[in-house]
# Entry
Amino acid sequence: MVAPTTALVHLVLHPKLSQSIALLATTIGRDKVYRLIQYLSRFIAWSLIRNGQSDVAARWDGLKNGLGGGRKLMRLFKPAEHLQSATNLALRPVANLNGPGQLAQVTQLGRQLCYAVFLTTDSVSWLNTVRFLRFDKNKLERLNRVSMKFWLFGIALSLVSSSASMVKLRADSRRFALSAEVARREGREKGPEEAAAAEGERRERGRALLAQRQAILSQLVMDACDIWIPANNLGYSNLNDGVIGILGATTSYMALQTQWAKHAAAGLRKTQ
# Structure
């Protein structure tokens, strides 16, 4: 009896489980998990319908719709977050940035504003769903199209912003590589301890640049996948629910990995 109890205690107190609980305790963590299940459900429902199992598919479709409505509720006040981010970006000086840096900041500002409008109109649509507001069918369709268009515009601006950030990062990396080479040559004239400390700082800077590159590439991939969802809803593309489900599940998993890594890093700092 002792062995199973000990194993259960180890399982309940396992660091990975604690990290999962910490992730699910956050709104963004739950949202990414719900989104992953939502788009997987969309794919599964499409696959079942193709195989003639409409009754089973209806259950997965109901799960998809339920999670979609729940996510809208969790995002009810999220436009304020995007408006605050847009304000902070607008207050940053642009004159001291180069061309790609200016483009990245301006398009990021536009992205935040587009997401604020998208989420606001999406919340108004949800209020109609729960019958707090009453819109006729045509007005609701127009509202949903406006919502999808601003989502599409926001993702498009994010793609431009990430591309410009990548160009800027490449230029920064080249300058860093040149300065590091010069510093190494000059470091031969310094003492071993001073040279080692300077080399450690350069390696730390190099790791930071690599992490930034990985973050930008991940954002580019997610945006390149996500942009098809509003485009499809607006009729600009004709992808089936299976493809949309896979694209949405892929980006949800990538976003969930990012949040998992953040919580893992936070947990590591606490133990140090």
Remarks:
- The mean pLDDT is 87.
- DSSP finds ten helices and no strands in the chain.
- The two ends are 36 Å apart (CA to CA).
- The longest helix spans residues 137-187.
